Amino acid sequence: MSEWFETLDGLHARLWQRLARGAADAKAPERHLVMATAGLDGGAEARTVVLRRVSESDALIEVHTDALSRKVAELAADPLAAFHVWNPRQRLQIRLRAQAEVITGTAVAETWARVPDASRGAYGTVPAPGQPIPQGDAFIRQPQMERFAILRAHVQDIDVVHLGEAQHRRARFQREGGWQGEWLAP
Amino acid sequence: MSEWFETLDGLHARLWQRLARGAADAKAPERHLVMATAGLDGGAEARTVVLRRVSESDALIEVHTDALSRKVAELAADPLAAFHVWNPRQRLQIRLRAQAEVITGTAVAETWARVPDASRGAYGTVPAPGQPIPQGDAFIRQPQMERFAILRAHVQDIDVVHLGEAQHRRARFQREGGWQGEWLAP
């Protein structure tokens, strides 16, 4: 028997398992991803996002954000985002590159209805996120569905690295090519 | 007395303290940063890097990498990188944007001499990192100084978020402006 990290199929199954766990379990390392985008002034930007939904069959993940946050403007300019997470127990780094679609308006109503009251404050800060304010607490929260956005990220490319004790392994899986996978030098 | 996260000076001191700790202590959360770069084909890329040196007075951080890794090619095309780390105990997200300088050749000899033998294998994989290989272990390690690069990142902009129990706080510090800092809506 091979270990899961010794085969392409094993790695592919494990990475989706872990992402699904992140969407379901607030304590999983995969709950919080770093999302990177191309900066509006060049270069890159990176910040934490919370993983909300995962579909392996459609190869997509979803996060929620304030429609006025800078990342939404960055995705409008260049929708190719990167997601990153490291799981220390699995010794597994997962990197995704994905075309992000920003969904707002009536299409988010059903999801918005399930957002707990205590969490809604994140969607509607006044002034908008990233605006200068005179004091650290000089803002209010006015939750509103108009400010709630689903970022649906259609995964194009997955790069995983397993740091084994004896051996590091790295593999890539691509939508184009039916996710069959190939080994890369680490 | 204010808590450290209630003042701009307190946040600024703490974030550099934490970065310095990351460079000194292999077990600190700040030891491993996510580094994001603009992708060669657009969008962004993100991966883990190890923090090797920090200078608050020069506002720079350093990481080491294989000179043939893709991130070096990405920085040659656009040197504006982003670094990200989340410290769960401090409840502190640190984001840096920095102009990265890639240093190789005789300028790295002194640093290379201090890299332990056991770590040198990371600089000289054959084939080069990211190249397809027929099996997961079909590569060798031939450490060589010519493949060792220091990424010296000159920090331009710092964005920190403290997730307090009652209150979230966000601040920005910029080189232009002498790092005096301002509050932002979170």
Largest sheet descriptor of chain A: 6 strands, antiparallel, barrel
The oligomerization state is homodimer
- Largest beta sheet of chain A: what is the strand line-up? 1-2-3-9-5-4
Shape of chain A: elongated
Mean pLDDT of chain A: 97
Share of helix of chain A, binned: 10-25%
Number of helices of chain A: 4
Span between termini of chain A: 23 Å
What structural class results from the helix and strand content of chain A? Answer: alpha+beta
Gyration radius of chain A, rounded: 18 Å
Beta-strand proportion of chain A: 35-45%
Q: What string, H for helix and E for strand, traces the elements of chain A in order?
A: HEEEHEEHHEEEEEE
Number of strands of chain A: 11
Largest interface: A-B, 50 and 50 residues
Low-confidence stretches of chain A: none
